[in-house]
């Protein structure tokens, strides 16, 4: 039966939301967080995904592990692990300790305390909201579509296409993508039938059956105006907004996750700026704006400040933020370098960000925040260590004619 027809035939008879007991997302999230706390969990460089060595172990501890054919599994190979990572990152639950040799994943202890004060129903709706409204899969897990998961799920289940379930299963890698289907299963939206994968197929889904909960949730969560779904991509509602929606239908939903307010980090930043194997370590005041920081960085490497640039980083929620040259145009998630100060950067010690200079030659610097000392002051900056000779910005090439 077509997905849309299944959805249309579901009747929401009762006012209250009824859980079937097949919702595994809360227990799975708690198991993964416990695993991270109990083990030394390594993360990949850059995006900080789960390292390959942990993927099969993480899959095995879940209530509903999936059968995947892969000799060298990455996080994306297991849609359930990819989806859980997306939720943990979007909630701001993950921390990362970066060293020369490795990046170690951890759990935000302050946020964990707030999480543990919630009951299982409140935890469920916290995860639901983070998935459908606040996550940015294209930035956090390199999802292929720049759209709101709520919009993707509504479109998949309700708007429908004149395709059979079999045809839609064939296209899952593109729409709504496997991680969304894995999450839909864990949230109790669907039941999935699979068979053992062959050497050409990974997660081998052969049937999808919708559960009543999907309509109980989506009919109350989706905005009345479809244009709001587009607006939410750029301006999502405040965290915790789902409490207003679902409390009338679920009496156990009384509290939401408490997030500590982001505060200014006033004092001294120790930054390690690397260009390949060449690096400079400096102490710099938190009062400097990013345009001033650019001048310092380029001076340290002997570059002329004659090109456009931008800074890129993922904040504690896995959202990509970009700080641009003042002459560049802005769009969502971006700020100008002369209006954004180092003290306001939403990163912690041992977090890193990227500086891209000259979009033609593409000089890409990695900047590691080695420490933040809020008890010290410095007028501007001080060079602490210099290793390696900086490359020439404009090398002379002998051209042969």
Summarize the entry for a quick read.
The protein is 33% helix and 19% strand.
SS content category = alpha+beta
Report the C-alpha radius of gyration, rounded: 24 Å
Order of H and E elements: HHEHHEEHHHHHHEEHHHEEHEEEEEE
Q: List the domain count as a whole number.
A: 2
Main beta sheet:
8 strands, mixed
Strand runs, count:
13
Let me know the average pLDDT.
90
DSSP helix fraction: 25-40%
Morphology call: elongated
Strand order of the largest sheet: 10-9-8-11-12-6-7-13
Tell me what the structure shows.
With 401 residues, the protein is an alpha+beta fold. The protein folds into two domains: 3-249, no CATH class; 268-387, Structural Genomics Hypothetical 15.5 Kd Protein In mrcA-pckA Intergenic Region, Chain A (Roll), CATH 3.10.290. Helix content is 33%, strand content 19%. It contains 14 helices and 13 strands. The chain has helices at residues 3-9, 25-38, 52-61, 79-91, 109-116, 120-134, 137-140, 149-159, 165-170, 178-186, 212-221, 227-234, 242-246, 290-300, and strands spanning 41-43, 94-98, 103-107, 190-194, 205-210, 268-275, 278-285, 309-314, 320-324, 334-336, 352-357, 363-373, 381-387. The strands form three sheets. An eight-stranded mixed β-sheet has the order 10-9-8-11-12-6-7-13, with helices on one face. The chain has a three-stranded antiparallel β-sheet with strand order 1-3-2. Strands 4-5 form a two-stranded antiparallel ribbon. Strand 8 and strand 9 (320-324) form a beta hairpin. It is elongated. 34% of the residues are buried.
């Amino acid at each position: 039966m077509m997905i849309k027809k299944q959805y249309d035939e579901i009747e929401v008879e009762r006012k209250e939301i009824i859980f079937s007991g097949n919702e595994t997302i809360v227990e799975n999230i708690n198991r993964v967080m416990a695993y991270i706390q109990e083990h030394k969990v390594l993360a990949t460089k850059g995006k900080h995904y789960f390292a390959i060595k942990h993927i099969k172990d993480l899959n095995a501890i879940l209530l509903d592990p999936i059968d995947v054919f892969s000799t060298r599994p990455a996080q994306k190979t297991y849609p359930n692990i990819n989806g859980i990572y997306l939720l943990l990152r979007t909630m701001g639950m993950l921390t990362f300790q970066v060293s020369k040799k490795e990046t170690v994943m951890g759990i935000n202890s302050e946020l964990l305390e707030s999480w543990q004060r919630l009951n299982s129903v409140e935890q469920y709706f916290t995860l639901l909201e983070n998935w459908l409204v606040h996550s940015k899969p294209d930035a956090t897990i390199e999802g292929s579509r720049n759209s709101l998961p709520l919009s993707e799920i509504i479109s998949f289940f309700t708007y429908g296409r004149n395709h059979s379930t079999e045809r839609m299963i064939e296209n899952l890698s593109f729409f709504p993508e496997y991680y969304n289907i894995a999450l839909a299963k864990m949230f109790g939206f669907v039941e999935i039938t699979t068979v053992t994968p062959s050497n050409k197929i990974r997660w081998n889904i052969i049937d999808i059956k919708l559960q009543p909960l999907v309509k109980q949730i989506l009919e109350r969560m989706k905005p009345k105006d479809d244009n709001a779904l587009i607006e939410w991509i750029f301006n999502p509602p405040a965290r915790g907004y789902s409490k207003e929606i679902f409390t009338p239908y679920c009496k156990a939903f009384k509290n939401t996750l408490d997030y500590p307010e982001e505060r200014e980090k006033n004092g001294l930043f120790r930054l390690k700026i690397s260009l390949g194997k060449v690096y400079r370590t400096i102490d710099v005041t938190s009062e400097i704006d990013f345009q001033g920081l650019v001048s310092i960085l380029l001076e340290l490497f002997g570059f002329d400040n004659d090109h456009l640039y931008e800074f890129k980083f993922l904040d504690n929620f896995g959202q990509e933020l970009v700080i641009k040259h003042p002459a560049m145009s802005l769009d969502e998630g971006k700020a100008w370098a002369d209006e954004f100060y180092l003290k306001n950067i939403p990163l912690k010690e041992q977090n890193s960000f990227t500086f891209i200079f000259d979009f033609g030659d593409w000089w890409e610097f990695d900047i590691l925040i080695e420490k933040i000392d809020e008890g010290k002051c410095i007028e501007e900056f001080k060079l602490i260590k210099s290793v390696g000779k900086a490359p020439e910005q404009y090398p002379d090439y002998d051209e042969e004619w």
